[in-house]
């Protein structure tokens, strides 16, 4: 746990005491519950525990600020999902997740793009038993209308510990995986074990 110190001080009339060192204070609180919804932009200020799926509004961004999301007991995910959209023409429905660690053990997926474009930047996903996918891109609601948009997974993102696929894309969606690492599956394999599965 990070700690911070505050120093109060000043000089006046040739005083010899120029500072007062206060006791060490905790800079970050213990993990609390994650939000379950957020708007255009949200920055995490501490680690948090997800009691249910965090739904991101259209065109929303979550900046994890280097913090970690873990799952509350019994929660099976997905951990973060876009607001379901009928399609993503012109980027009308989009979600960006960046600088975040997700301990997704037990979740169906860590990130779900539901009829949405978007990006995954510098996100580190660790799955486990019960984690089908690291990132799922589902455009089944309107497969002919995804337009020129895509889901980009890049900037050092890592995905591991999944049971079925690290990245699962279906519904004629477009995607790219660049400068990222998809590690092997974790635990007992599911019906299909694949780093990237496009269907």
Describe the protein's topology.
Layout: E1 3-4, E2 7-9, E3 19-21, E4 25-26, E5 32-33, E6 37-38, E7 41-43, E8 48-50, E9 54-56, E10 60-63, E11 68-71, E12 80-82, E13 94-103, E14 109-114, E15 117-126, E16 133-138, E17 151-154, E18 158-160, E19 165-170, E20 175-177, E21 181-182, E22 194-198
Parallel strand pairs: 5-8, 6-9, 7-10, 8-11, 9-12, 10-13, 11-13, 12-14, 13-15, 14-16, 15-17, 15-18, 16-19, 17-20, 18-21, 19-22
Antiparallel strand pairs: 1-4, 2-3
Model description:
- The chain has 199 residues and is an all-beta fold.
- The chain has strands at 3-4, 7-9, 19-21, 25-26, 32-33, 37-38, 41-43, 48-50, 54-56, 60-63, 68-71, 80-82, 94-103, 109-114, 117-126, 133-138, 151-154, 158-160, 165-170, 175-177, 181-182, 194-198.
- Strands 5, 7, 8, 10, 11, 13, 15, 17, 18, 20 and 21 form an eleven-stranded parallel β-sheet that branches.
- The chain is globular and about 35 Å long.
- The model is unreliable at 1-29 and 87-91 (pLDDT under 50).
Provide a compact summary of the structure.
This protein has 199 residues and is mainly beta.
* Tally of individual helices: 0
Global geometry: globular
What's the rounded overall pLDDT mean? 80
Q: Level of helix content?
A: under 10%
Q: Spans of 5+ residues with little confidence (pLDDT < 50)? A: 1-29, 87-91
Could you give the order of the helices and strands? EEEEEEEEEEEEEEEEEEEEEE
Separation of termini? 43 Å
Radius of gyration: 21 Å
β-strand percent reads 35-45%
Derived from helix and strand composition plus strand pairing, the structural class reads: mainly beta
Question: Major β-sheet, in short?
Answer: 11 strands, parallel
* Count of β-strands: 22
């Amino acid at each position: 746990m990070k700690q911070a110190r505050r120093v109060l001080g000043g000089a006046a009339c040739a005083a010899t005491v120029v500072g007062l060192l206060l006791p060490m204070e905790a800079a970050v609180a213990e993990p609390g519950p994650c939000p379950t919804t957020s708007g255009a932009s949200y920055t995490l200020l501490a680690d948090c525990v997800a009691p249910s799926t965090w739904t991101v509004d259209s065109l929303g961004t979550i900046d994890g600020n280097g913090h970690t999301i873990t799952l509350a007991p019994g929660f099976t995910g997905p951990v973060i999902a876009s607001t379901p959209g009928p399609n993503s023409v012109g980027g009308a429905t989009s979600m960006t997740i960046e600088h975040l660690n997700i301990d997704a053990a037990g979740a169906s997926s860590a990130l779900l793009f539901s009829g949405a474009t978007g990006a995954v930047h510098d996100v580190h996903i660790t799955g486990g038993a019960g984690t089908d996918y690291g990132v799922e891109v589902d455009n089944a609601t309107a497969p002919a209308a995804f337009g020129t948009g895509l889901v980009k997974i890049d900037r050092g993102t890592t995905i591991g510990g999944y049971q079925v696929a690290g990245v699962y894309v279906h519904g004629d969606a477009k995607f790219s995986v660049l400068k990222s690492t998809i590690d092997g599956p974790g635990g007992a394999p599911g019906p299909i074990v694949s780093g990237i599965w496009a269907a």
